[in-house]
């Protein structure tokens, strides 16, 4: 591989487009972000003009190309929000605004899917890609391509609107175990040719078109590499790569993912598996997390109390912290109520008891995954705002009995840059 080869990862998020450039050693050379306007929200309908993504993406590429000169970008991979969908005509022109990942309008379509799709299929629910595609196709029967957010942005560069990756297509009904579009999709009012050709993330899908490369400051032989969803790109960014490697995201909610040798599907717990090379990425999400802390304390209070935590001395308060009634993973119980009593007089003790409760949920989550066939975690990389709390890390290590590692990289754009490097490297070996 030429020493001057550098790789661009693009993360098309809800609030912005971020680009990250790395070299062959994985060292970040440059990054740049442009904010996006908020999607249009009308009740359950949440949509956005895809040309907003394109304009921001082009600006990010131009900026980074200029900043890196005389180095030139050898390959690009793109991730986007999972379940954000649009339909295009033959030339790739969107026929309507894109329906965003959290759009919930497609309830009628979800009911139809529920009647014919297998129980373990990830295409269930009003927010699935498939439900949105059905909704849009009824209104735009002239459509020729179903595109996810990452698909469409990639296609504006290489020109092929009929290709996608298997991670994005999971919620469109793609069977990643058998590596095909299942026959039950024929029972829906969607033409077979509207579904994309599916490749694995990290696969070369084409070169940037010459005129576009010139406009954006890219070399004429710049390769486009199949990307993934934003959450999987963020997982890849952490460096987790071996069977038993896990990532816990300590954000507003608690999200667990682990690399497994076998696929795990347990829709009753919201657990699905994405293919990741020769392995599988299985996970689930609890309603517990940082949102519970913010219900009781502001950030200044949390910062002040963190120094006073005593992780070596357990509170012995057996909390199950939830922001409201209802849990999805590791317990699937819509009626499960938060358990946060008795409340001690000392706020620091209360704070620590909540952290202990979230750590217990994390441990139960990994036990649940292991019970379904995933490996026990060998090491747990941590991302999200809560990863910066050293006392919480100690509490978690004691509860999990597993090494907890603060991830050096957590940006999805960095993970996509690693995919770009991977695809390019395979080509040059």
Protein traits:
single chain; 429 residues; alpha/beta; Nucleotidyltransferase, domain 5; 2 domains; six-stranded mixed beta sheet; 12 helices; 32% helix
Brief digest:
With 429 residues, this protein is α/β, with parallel strands linked by helices.
Describe the structure.
The protein is α/β, with parallel strands linked by helices and 429 residues long. The protein is 32% helix and 23% strand. β18 (379-383), α11 (390-400) and β19 form a beta-alpha-beta unit. The longest helix is centred in the last third of the chain and has 25 residues, at 347-371.
- Please state roughly what percent of the residues sit in beta strands, choosing from under 5%, 5-15%, 15-25%, 25-35%, 35-45% or over 45%: 15-25%
How many separate structural domains? 2
Largest sheet: 6 strands, mixed
**SS summary, helix count:** 12
Averaged pLDDT: 95
How are the secondary structure elements laid out?
Elements: E1 6-12, E2 16-23, E3 28-35, E4 40-42, E5 45-48, H1 50-68, E6 73-80, E7 85-88, E8 98-99, H2 107-116, H3 129-139, E9 145-148, H4 149-158, E10 163-165, H5 166-169, E11 197-199, E12 204-207, H6 210-216, E13 223-229, H7 230-237, E14 245-250, E15 254-260, E16 272-276, E17 279-286, H8 290-296, H9 299-306, H10 347-371, E18 379-383, H11 390-400, E19 403-406, H12 412-428
Parallel strand pairs: 1-6, 6-13, 10-11, 14-18, 18-19
Antiparallel strand pairs: 1-2, 2-3, 4-5, 5-8, 7-9, 12-13, 14-15, 15-17, 16-17
């Amino acid at each position: 591989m030429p020493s001057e080869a550098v790789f661009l990862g693009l993360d098309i998020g809800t609030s912005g487009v971020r680009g990250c450039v790395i070299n062959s050693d994985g060292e970040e050379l440059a990054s740049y972000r442009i904010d996006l306007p908020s999607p249009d929200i009308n009740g359950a309908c949440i949509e956005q003009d895809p040309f907003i993504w394109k304009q921001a993406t082009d600006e990010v590429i131009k900026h980074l190309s200029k900043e890196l000169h005389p180095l030139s970008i050898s390959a690009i991979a793109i991730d986007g929000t999972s379940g954000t969908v649009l339909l295009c005509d033959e030339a790739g022109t969107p026929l309507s605004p894109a329906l965003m990942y959290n759009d919930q309008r497609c309830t009628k379509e979800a009911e139809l899917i529920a009647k014919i799709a297998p129980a373990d299929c990830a295409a269930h629910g009003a927010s699935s890609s498939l439900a949105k595609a059905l909704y849009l196709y009824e209104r735009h029967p002239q459509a020729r391509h179903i595109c996810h957010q990452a698909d469409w942005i990639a296609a504006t560069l290489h020109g092929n609107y009929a290709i996608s990756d298997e991670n994005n297509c999971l919620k469109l009904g793609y069977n990643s175990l058998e590596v095909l579009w299942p026959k039950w999709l024929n029972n829906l009012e969607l033409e077979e040719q509207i579904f994309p050709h599916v490749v694995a993330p990290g696969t070369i899908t084409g070169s940037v078109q010459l005129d576009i490369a010139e406009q954006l400051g890219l070399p004429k032989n710049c390769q486009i590499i199949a990307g993934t969803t934003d959450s999987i790109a963020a997982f890849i960014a952490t460096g987790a790569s071996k069977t038993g490697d896990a990532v816990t995201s300590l954000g507003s909610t608690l999200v667990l993912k682990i690399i497994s040798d076998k696929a795990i599907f347990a829709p009753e717990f919201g657990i699905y598996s994405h293919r990741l090379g020769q392995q599988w990425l299985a996970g689930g999400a609890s309603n517990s997390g940082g949102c519970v802390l913010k219900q009781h304390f502001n950030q200044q209070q949390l910062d002040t109390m963190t120094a006073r935590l005593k992780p070596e001395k357990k509170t012995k308060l057996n909390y199950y912290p939830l922001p409201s009634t209802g849990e999805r993973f590791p317990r699937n119980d819509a009626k499960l109520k938060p358990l946060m009593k008795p409340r001690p007089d000392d706020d620091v003790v209360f704070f620590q008891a909540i952290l202990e409760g979230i750590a217990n949920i994390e441990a139960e989550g990994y036990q649940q995954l292991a019970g379904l066939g995933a490996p026990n975690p060998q090491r747990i990389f941590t991302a999200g705002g809560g990863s910066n709390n050293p006392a919480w890390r100690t509490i978690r290590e004691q509860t999990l009995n597993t090494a907890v590692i603060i991830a050096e990289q957590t940006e999805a754009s960095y993970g996509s840059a690693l995919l770009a490097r991977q695809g390019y490297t395979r080509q040059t070996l």
